[in-house]
Write a structure and sequence with these properties.
Elements lengths: L2 H8 L15 H8 L1 H24 L4 H16 L12 H11 L1 H18 L2 H19 L4 H14 L1 H6 L6
Helix pairs in contact: 1-3, 2-3, 3-4, 3-5, 4-5, 4-8, 5-6, 6-7, 7-8
Amino acid sequence: MNSAILICRCFNLPDPRQHGSGNPGATNVLRLGGKLPALLTLCGDVSKGVIPTITADYLHFLPLGLSLVALAAVMGHLFPVFFGFAGGKGVATAFGSILAISLPLAVSLLLCWLAGARVLQRSSGGALCAALAAPVLSYWLAPAYLPLMLALCAILMFRHGDNWRSWHLPPK
């Protein structure tokens, strides 16, 4: 179940796929319903990455197996069966998977997201900055997960294509 859709139903908010940006994610829910529904959406999306990945880690999966579980969690968020294969952009779920794999890498990427979002004044700007930094930071902090970070970077860049193609930098 998509967290944004479930939270919007619980708070009697409009369907995020039909309103705002049309994206079922925390940023759109923030626009539609405020901070609490957005925070709950974010927690739900992050947990979709954390829970399967941390479970696989508990079961002693090797890095390749953990990477495949993380990638499956993100792909399940992007292409949910019950919503016609039209899901969110995958940032929070990818972050959740990374959080379960490497806390130093996740914290570093969160800082990249914060810096990018502040400079570009867009959540999607922060997401793209973090996605681009993920392979580089992974090389130093979690080299066994570099292939996963390359894949996630490519997926997130593709999913945010409409965002980065339409950007105009804020005036100075």
